[in-house]
User: Fold these one by one.
Assistant:
Number 1:
Amino acid sequence: MNGTALGAFRMALGRLWRRTSQRRSQRHSITWERMIRLTERWLPPVRIRHPYPHQRLGVATRGKSRMR
């Protein structure tokens, strides 16, 4: 469900990383191709580790609910 949001977070982190590295060096700039390679190498891929809530929390209750 939120795999897209996690991917966007990873891309934003790569952009911030590039901007920070650009600020530190006035002579050399990192190209986007090199930054993509660095991001692929050092940032872990997006994986959802937990099952969806309807699989994880599919519990049937018996009797009256305590929340009433």
Number 2:
Amino acid sequence: MFPFAFFRRLISRCSVAGLALALASGVALAGGERTVVELFTSQGCSSCPPADEFLTELADKPNIVALTYNVDYWDYLGWKDTLATAENTKRQKDYAERRGDGAVYTPQMVIDGIEHVVGSRRGEVERLIAESRDESRVTRPSLSIERDGRELAVRIGGQGLAKQVDATVWFLVVEPRVKVQIQKGENLDKTITYTNVVRKMVPVGMWRGQDLEITLPAAEFVQGDKPHGVVLVQEDHGGPILAATAIVSLGDE
């Protein structure tokens, strides 16, 4: 769906020209600081539905990017998760390895790629979200996205940061709502609505602390019924999420 040759051409179009380069008639889609809440969940997990509902509430709050990752390691319990991928499971395990605590469970919420908590513990989640706004915790670049016709311009500002970072710019294809009727396993006969389901994570550039602009063909990231999109700047190997922003719609213009 996204051949290697396409990404090689895409990366070659990245320009470290700074933020002074602006698109004529561009329309800003999103911007500003965001706290990223990632929920690792499973359709085969009886304790997950309350966390799934809580994530839906968080997704409606300003300055929060809420994402759902269905994992596959509970499939043996009798119901194969229809949204799960091995990539989602690996992402969760990468976080655990980076933290060094080996904590891989559902429902698990990870805040800005740093802290984790049981996803149904509302008070703890809200406390971690509040703490994530402390700018002393991580080095945060600026991040904005504009659309001009068929192109998306992703701009990252280094702001003269002295710290050397090894980070990847990720484009996430996200489906806003998915309703699933569970027919076996621990959630038998339940209908669960999942919010902002991550369907695919695509690396579109590397960030080393400099001003960076990446031009993307918008149509390449529209799959199915016009899913939403999210851009993350994240330190490699399960590190902190340094910046994030959401695109409300990627429909054709």
